[in-house]
Design a protein that fits this description.
5-stranded mixed beta sheet; 13 helices; about 45% helix; Tc1-like_DDE_dom; Transpos_IS630-like; Transposase; RNaseH_sf
């Protein structure tokens, strides 16, 4: 074995090699062992550096530094990658893998099932269940999962999208931008048995059966500037209730500010009496999101929060108790409210929709 002062192969790097090694050494996606080998070679560059010095500077064994120094001097960059090791030969060839992928993507089970499982694919292709699962994971195929979507059929989709997104990204001066909507059918459900409390090793338990004591409709307006919520609960969901809520907003907003109101295409929002009320108030400006595009209305995000944190797990003996809970939650929410930060531009949304349409070309859309 060489002594501590022995110098091994001298390494001279070209500019291209040095750039490649620096990129490998700094990479966070490559295996750590490969990045370390690149750092060893970089540290060994020059005629006056012993492997002992390199090993000490990198905190590794001298033999490790000698090994990769010698291998790089002999075979250059290719030597840093692991060689094929002996082991059991493959039992599934490329043709079988291709058949598995094509079967998953382009066919349905013959037994009438709507989608493949690892077991049914194993039976169909003759590949073991565990191997099927491994290849599905490698190719990111998930036949057991499904995601729902709905494309807007609004002929003015692009114009309405740019209008609403423009309000989020560049709100007008001397104006208040409000996202307004209703959450109808908020049910006052009373569980038939008390909840089982959260404990070590088990989650909170809720009975699936309940007594229904009625419903209420939550009208809410989200202030895009600061995230504050103005909310009212009403027994019905008609243009009369919507108009009453608009009057409440009109009283709450300072008279010197314009009101830009983002709403969906529900019929009560376009009722003749609502239009007449708006016509008498020129400071009001209505902005309608495209059909099937409620995700553009930021108040929907608040509805998800209040449903998850205040309504879904609750047990209410009456609509009055549910309404009290909702108003209490809104009051607490407004004490520490923060605005939702909208970052997507209209162009980025249209590009994403374009990619989706590209995936489903020929599916009747």
């Amino acid at each position: 074995m060489p002594n501590a002062h022995t110098r091994t192969s001298n390494i001279e790097l070209t500019e291209l090699e040095r750039a490649e090694l620096v990129s490998m050494a700094r990479s966070r996606s490559l295996p750590a062992a490969l990045a370390l080998r690149a750092r060893i070679v970089l540290a060994c560059e020059g005629v006056d550096k012993a492997s002992t010095e390199v090993a000490k500077s990198l905190g590794i064994d001298r033999n490790t530094a000698n090994k990769w120094r010698a291998r790089y001097a002999r075979d250059r960059l290719a030597s840093l990658y692991d060689e094929l090791r002996p082991g059991r030969p493959r039992t599934v060839d490329d043709e079988q893998v291709a058949e598995l992928i094509n079967t998953t993507l382009h066919t349905k089970p013959s037994d009438g099932s709507t989608h493949w499982s690892t077991r049914s694919l194993a039976t169909q292709t003759g590949i073991s269940k565990s191997t099927v699962a491994r290849y599905l994971k490698i190719f990111q195929l998930k036949p057991h999962r499904v995601e729902s979507f709905k494309l807007s059929t609004d002929p003015l989709f692009v114009e309405k999208l740019r209008d609403v997104v423009g309000l989020y990204l560049n709100p007008p001066e001397n104006a208040l931008v409000l996202c307004v909507d209703e959450k109808s059918q908020c049910q006052a459900l009373e569980r038939t048995q008390p909840m089982l409390p959260l404990g070590l090793g088990y989650v909170e338990g809720v009975t699936h059966d309940y007594v229904r004591h009625g419903t209420t409709t939550l009208f809410a307006a989200l202030n895009v500037l600061n995230g504050a919520i103005l909310a009212e609960c009403k027994p019905r969901h008609r243009h009369q209730e919507f108009l009453a809520f608009l009057r409440s907003i009109d009283k709450a907003v300072p008279a010197e500010l314009d009101v830009h109101c983002i709403v969906d295409n529900y019929a009560s929002h376009k009722h003749p009496k609502v239009k007449a009320w708006l016509a008498d108030r020129p400071r009001w400006h209505m902005h309608f999101v495209p059909t099937y595009s409620s995700w553009l209305n930021q108040v929907e995000r608040f509805f998800a929060i209040i449903t998850d944190k205040a309504i879904r797990r609750g047990s209410f003996t009456s609509v009055k108790e549910l309404t009290k809970k909702i108003h209490s939650f809104v009051n607490q929410y407004n004490q520490n409210c923060k605005p939702f930060t909208w970052t997507a531009t209209a162009d980025s949304i249209l590009a994403k929709l374009g990619r989706l349409c590209g995936r489903i070309t020929g599916a009747g859309h």
